Amino acid sequence: MDLSQLHNALSSQSFHKVADICDELILHVASTGVAYQEEWPYAVHLLGHLYINDLNSARFLWKSVPQSIKEARPELVATWKIGQCLWTKDYAGVYNAVQGFDWSPETSGIVASFLENYRKKMFGLLTLAYSTIIVSDVAHFMGMSEEDATKYAVEHGWSLDVPSKMLTVEKPKITAEQKVDSSKLQRLTEFVFHLEN
């Protein structure tokens, strides 16, 4: 079984391609009739789906994994724990699942990148949803200590009211520039001229 394409994606940190590569490879290998289950990198495959937030495909993959392989591979079970937390929107559980396992060299890169992206996504959602928020809630949603969460938020433009332990959210500036193309202006002028005459 040739997994060089998968290894290249992992080594080049093209983690967004992992799920598609694995899906194509597993279909190809399965169509040849060769027994592949014992050698298949299920944890990497599952992480690939979680990385692109394809929870449905992750669930179907998990259900297709033979029980004997689930029992024999703790890293696969740890990966699925992340998937379960994502599915149930257990935000702190995602961080606990990631940080509560000693990931192999093969998976550590994609797990670290997933966690970084997840943390950015959560921060973005907090920015959109709140105007003020208590430090402990930010720490909970960001999977950090209160001190680290405060530091992260302040570095991203939020302000801290120390007595109340409240963070004031800095909303992103939305710029709506409209560039008028001269050809569009000309067509509009011609259209208006046509309507008036």
UniProtKB/TrEMBL annotation:
Gene Ontology biological-process entries: COP9 signalosome assembly; protein deneddylation
Subcellular location: Cytoplasm; Nucleus
Main location (coarse class): cytoplasm
GO cellular component terms given for this protein: COP9 signalosome; cytoplasm
Key words of the record: Cytoplasm, Nucleus, Signalosome
Start and end residues of each CSN8/PSMD8/EIF3K domain: 38-174
InterPro entries: COP9_CSN8, CSN8_PSD8_EIF3K
Gene3D superfamilies, A to Z: 1.25.40.990
The protein's name: COP9 signalosome complex subunit 8
Organism: Rhynchospora pubera
Lineage: Eukaryota, Viridiplantae, Streptophyta, Embryophyta, Tracheophyta
